[in-house]
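User: For a benchmark we're assembling, each entry needs the component sequences followed by a predicted structure for the full assembly. Here are entry 17's components. Please fill in the structure.
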Amino acid sequence: MIRKYISHFALLLSALLLWQCEPNIDSFQPSNGTADFSSFVTIGDSYTAGYTDGALSQYGQMNSFSAIMAKQLMSVGTTEFKQPLIPEGKSIGSAGNASLILYETGIPSIPVAPLAQPGNIELLTDPSTWINGQYHNIGVPGAKSFHLLAPEYGNPALGAGNFNPFYARFASQPGVSSMLTDAMANTPTFFNLWLAGNDVLSYALSGGQGNVGGTGTNDITDEATFTFAINTLLTNLSAGGAKGVIGNIPDIEAIPYISYIQYDALELTADLAAQMNAAYAAYNAGAAANGLPTMDFKEGRNAFVIADPTYPIAQMRQALPGEKILISALAGIQSEDRWGSATPIPNTHTLHIQTPPFNSVNQVENIKSAIVSFNAILKAQADAHGVAFADINALMEDLKDGYVIDGHTYTTAFITGGIFSLDGIHSTARGSAIIANSFIEAINNKYGAQVPKANVNDYITVEFP
Amino acid sequence: MKKLFIGAALLISSLSAYAEGYQVNLQGNRQTGMGHTGTGLLMGASSLHFNPGALGFMESKYEFSLGASFIFSNNTFQKQGPSLYEAKSDNPMGTPFYFYGATKLTDKMVFGLSVTTPFGNSLSWGKEWDGRFLIQDISLRAIFIQPTIAYKINDKFGVGVGFVAVNGDVELNKALPLTDQGGVEGNVNIAGNTWAFGFNAGLTYKANETLTLGLNYRSEVMVKLEGGDATFNTPKSLNTSSAFPKNNKFDAQLPMPYNITFGAGFQASEKLLLALDLQYVGWSAYKTLDFDFEQNTPSLQDSENVRNFENTMIYRLGAEYELKENVQLRAGIYYDTTPIPEDLLTPETPGTNKTGISAGFTWGITEKMDLDGSLLYIHGQKREDGYAPSNFYGTYSTNAIIPGIGLTYSF
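Assistant: Structure for entry 17:
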C-alpha cells in the first residue's frame, strides 16, 4: 500500500522534472512583406563602400552598413552579396594612406591620437591589382550624385586625377560601364541608394574652397543636377519593378571632422595670453583705427586666430561662434607653428560665417542650406518613386545628444563617441550597424516586412592601444 | 478538500501581475514541500526562521535540523523584435542551506540558533552576450545568523525574538565598451563582503485544538558595503589614473527587505494539516543601486541605477498528509508577484510573476531522526519588458527545478 503511494509520488515528481525543463521561446519569424530581396544591390559613396578609419580595407568592407544590411536580408531572401574586396591586411585611403590606428602619444593632455601610415597605393594605381567584374556593392568613395551616371568616372584613360580609381578598380568595364549600369547588371529586385553627402561635403572638407552650384571637385552640386541625377537613378533602379530604400544627408554638426574642435578651444595660460596680447598689439591698433574688433586674449579658453583672405586687417581675425575648425587643423594646432595662436589657421581648414565688413562668404550657411535643399529633394524623390526613406539626418541628430542602445550611450564625439571612426567622417563597424538598422526600420515600415535588425553589440568600435 | 484546493489555486492564478527580486524562500524542506508555508505552523526548530513565536511550543528538549536545496534555474532572453537574437543563461547551481538548533531552557523558554540564506542571486549570461554592458554574471549571497529567545506565555500564546547578523557577499562582472587593438573588450569586476544587522520577531496564537495563527516580522537589513574592490580591465592606454584606474574601490548598499507574514495552520482531520501564508515583502526599500567609486575621473563617474522596486505579496497554500506514523507527504502551491516595475527590468534580476508547485515528504528513519525531502518547480510568466535607462528590451522567461534534502534530529 505505502509502496504504491510512493511509486505514484515518484511518477509525479519525474513528470514534473521532464515537464518544461527549459522555458519555451517563440522564435522571431522574419518576413519579406511586399518586397523581394532576392537580388539586393547597394549603390552609393564611401559609406556604402565601407570606407572607415580614413581608408578602404577588407575589414571596413565586411562591416559596412551595406554588408550588415545584406547579412540581415539573408533571412528574408537575399542569396548573395558580392563585394569588390581589398586583399586582407591591405588598405588604401584617398591620400595614399593606410587605415588609421590610435597610438599613445606620451602627452598627458592628449594620451592617444590617430596615426596614418602609407597605404597600399598600388591598389589604385596598378591595374593588375584591379578586380573588374560584377558586384552587388557599388559603393565608391568620393562619389557625388551625378558621378553615378557617368562612365568617365571610372575611365583610367583620362589620366590620374581625372577619374576615380576607387571605381576603376572594380568597374565591370572601366570607362564604359557606369556605377548605375553596374548596379543594373545584377537585375536588382531591391536596392539601397545612399549618397551621404559628397554633393555638399566635399565643399565642407576643403574648407569651402569651391563654388556653390557647380560640378567641380570642391563645389556644392547645383540643385538641378542633383535632382536630375537622383531622379534618373531611381527611375532606372526601379524600372524592372524593383523596390528600394534611400537615405538622406546628416547635418555637419554631427560630423566630428567638422564639429569636434570648438571655435574657442584655444587654451592659454596667463603668461601666454600676455605674450599674445603683446604680439598682436600692432594688429589691434589697426583694427581699432578701422572700427573692427581687436584680438584680446585671456587665461583659459580663447577663440582661435584664423586666416580670412577677405578680412581687411592682416587677413586674419579671431574665429566667431558658429565657425568651424576642421580636424585637419589639429596637427598644426599641436605643432610648433601653433596654428590658431602664433600663426592663423589657414582657411583651407576652417569654415567661415559672414562677419563685418561682410566681404567673406558664409560657408557654414552655404553648407547648411544645401543640406536642407538636398534632403527636401531626396524626400520628394523617394515619395515620387514610392521607395522607402531612411532619415539618417534625424538619426545623427539623436546620436549627437547621446543615444542609448543596448546598455551603452553613443555620441558623435570624436574617438570616444563610438559611432565615428578615427577619420571623424565615416562610421565604425558599430556605427554602421546602427545606420543599417535605420535603413531596416524604414524598409519594414514601408513594405510591411519583418527584417531582423542587426545586433549592434556584435560589431566593434574604435580600438584603443 | 480537493475541491477547495483547486478553487484556491484558480483564485490565485487569476490575480493580476507582479516576482521575487533576489529573495530565496527555501528555509526548510518541510515548509518548502507545503508551498513554503509555516508561519502559522508549529514546526519545531525551523520556526526560528518562519516564526520565532512558534518556537516556544517545541515539544522535544533538543531539536536540530539541517538541509539544503539545489537550484537548477534557466533564464532565456529573446531580444525585442525585429531581431533573431536569443540567449540562454548558464547559471551555476544555487545551494541555499539552513541549520536550526534549539533547546528548551525551561518549560516555557526556548533558546535557538539558526543559520540561513534567505537572499541570494546566481545568474550568468556569459561574457559575450548582447546585454553584457548591463551584466555578465552576478553572485550574491547573504548568510543570516540568528540567536533567538522564545517564550510560551501560556498554552495559547507564544512570542519570540531573534537578533540577526548578516554576512553579505557579492561579486559581479560587466563588460565595458572599450576594445583594445587585439579585439579584447574591457570589463569591470565588482566584489565585496560585509556585515549588517537586523531582527526577527514572531507571535503565535493557538486559537483552539485545530487552528493556529502566526504573525512574523523579519526586519529590513541594509547591507552597506564600504571599500569593496572595483577592478577595471581596459585597453592599456585607458587603464590609468586619469581614465579607468585599475584597482579602484567602491561603496554601495543593497537592502534585504522586511517581510511581514501572516500564517494559519488548520488541522482539518487527524491526518490532514492545511496551511496558508500571506507574505508581504518590503521591496520598496530598493530604490537605486549606486556605486560610489573612490577614484573618479572624467571617464569614470559614480554610477546611479534606478530600481524603484515595489512592495509585493506572496500567496501560499500547503497541505500535509500523514500517511503513516512515520511518513508524511506534502504538497503546496504559491504565487509570487514581482517587485520590478515596468521599464526597470534588468537582466541581473529578470523578475516576473512566478507560480511555485511543490511536493515533499518526511520519513522517520528512527524515533529521533527524520529524513526530509522536497521538490519545487517554479514557473515564471513570460515577460516582455526591459530597462529603459539602458534601452535594453526583450522577452524574459524563467523557470527552476529545486530538489532539497535535509535531516531533523530531536530528543
